[in-house]
Amino acid sequence: MDQVSVRQMAKEMREGHRSVVETCQSFLDMAKKKNPSTNAFVLWEESALEKAKEMESRSSKEGALFGVPIAVKDNFCTKGLRTTASSRILENFIPPYTAHCIELLEKEGAVIIGKTNLDEFAMGSSNENSHFSSCKNPWDLTRVPGGSSGGSASAVAASMAPLSIGSDTGGSIRQPAHFCGVVGVKPTYGSISRYGMVAFASSLDQAGPMAKNVEDAALALDIMIGKDERDATNVSRQQESLRDLTPTNLKGLKVGLPKEYMTDELEEGSREVLGSTIEQLKASGCEVVEVSLPHTEYAIPVYYLVAASEASSNLSRYDGVRYGLRDVEMEDGHSVTDLADFYKLTRSRGFGDEVKRRILLGTFALSAGYFDAFYTKACQVRRLIADDFISAFNECDLIISPVSTGSAFKLGEKTDDPVSMYYNDVFTTPANLAGLPALSLPVGLDDKKMPVGLQVIAPSFQEKRMLEFALAVEKLVDFKETPSE
Amino acid sequence: MIDEKTIEKIAHLARLKISPVEEKNFENHFKKILDYFQSLQKINTENVEPMVTPHNIEINLREDGVRKSITTEEVLSNGPDVKDGLFKVPPVV
Fold this sequence. Notes:
The complex is a heterodimer.
Chain A: H1 6-14, H2 20-38, E1 41-44, H3 48-56, E2 69-73, H4 100-107, E3 111-116, H5 150-157, E4 163-168, H6 174-180, E5 183-186, E6 206-211, H7 214-224, E7 254-258, H8 268-283, E8 287-291, H9 299-314, H10 339-350, H11 353-366, H12 371-392, E9 398-402, H13 418-423, H14 429-434, E10 438-445, E11 451-457, H15 463-477
Parallel strand pairs in A: 2-3, 2-4, 7-8, 7-9
Antiparallel strand pairs in A: 1-3, 4-6, 5-6, 5-10, 9-11, 10-11
Chain B: H1 4-13, H2 20-37, H3 72-76, E1 82-83, E2 86-87
Antiparallel strand pairs in B: 1-2
């Protein structure tokens, strides 16, 4: 299968040395062959080949992603193409508009080949909470691909698409990237417009790319960053161009390793892989210093309180009136006559268990009598977590850490215990709470032959510094393994 | 703090209908989650300004003017029940 970079692929198609139609067809063939086992895609874009044909016939071929097939997480609205957020409540939703960042990618010539699986409304760390059933990890089909962008990670890992788009609210790009051995980037909060991305927790949600290598992810990210007045939290671009990156000179670079992240909960296999990467960094002249993020242990309760509170408010829009599922038949067969029941029936039949659990948790945290003790308290501790990073960045240029407490776990292993599932996100949620850019980059395989990623966190808007370092690490570790499936 | 009655009350506020089995399940999970969340109470947050959004982003409001948006047809295109350019709902009084 095609292993050339996205940048190279686009260049060849622009110059007419590579066929847009054949490229699209070969990825679609691979995707359709592997989808029965991975369940990465929940919908094909049937007009992809037609679009490829039209592009092939153009006299002027332009765009940094000209003809590049992409897979889009199914919580990004795509005009005329069903968008479900893997929820029954949106099972038949056909958006009348396209998400801003997807529009930007299409403007540069990207061709959407399908929509990918996710945990319902991006709520989950394993892709097991999907109305369209679990997605699987191509490295081992008995294991989860991570979540919530499991489908997008699985698609890139299995070469079903050279590039995919995910969203990250508490680690939903980085953790699946780590589980599936691909690169996943979450930019600084406010960089990419959230317009058209199905809202989960608006103060945390950011879109981002997933790819086989750092350069491809950086190119896609560069395109996705853009000013859009339809998202009031979207800021004017502050990042330098991410298109022509030079690997950082590791000599003299100071990276911080948070002592709170090297806990006993970290699996031995991950510890070994990361340890050897750190040794390689040191051998290259990089200074690895211990830093402290003292409020790390509170990140999970803070994250889940903030995210659930925002979700309970955001998801109140699913009321069965204007779009989505409407289910008004009572158990006795009669139609509903009470307004509260009208909402309740639709919502209870449309949402899955985890979504209901988080809506209830958020409603509780925001309700009279508990607001200050839970929501306000969580927001205060959120500031302490963000302040920890400000102090740490006084002592280092970048922070490196594990992405999760271990590599991909087995399907079903954690579904009965929400707290243990939530704990998986302990190293990824702090960057969302603080709004910082962070990425996951594959650095090795553990004793289970599963990929292990390294997380890199940078100060706000320092995406270039973060990606150039990642480029240097990528060269250094030279991770070449590919999944068997 | 969390009992059946609280779950029922929250479920009503969230406009969710919860079956008795789900209620028991949620109650157990809720207790576990909230116990875990109690750890926050021991942190001193006196004089800490709550952070509701990352790094003091200026809110960028666009100019308030008339502009083109999607059409009425498009707005109504996903309506579960539509009549005469309006969303239709069952009579509820």
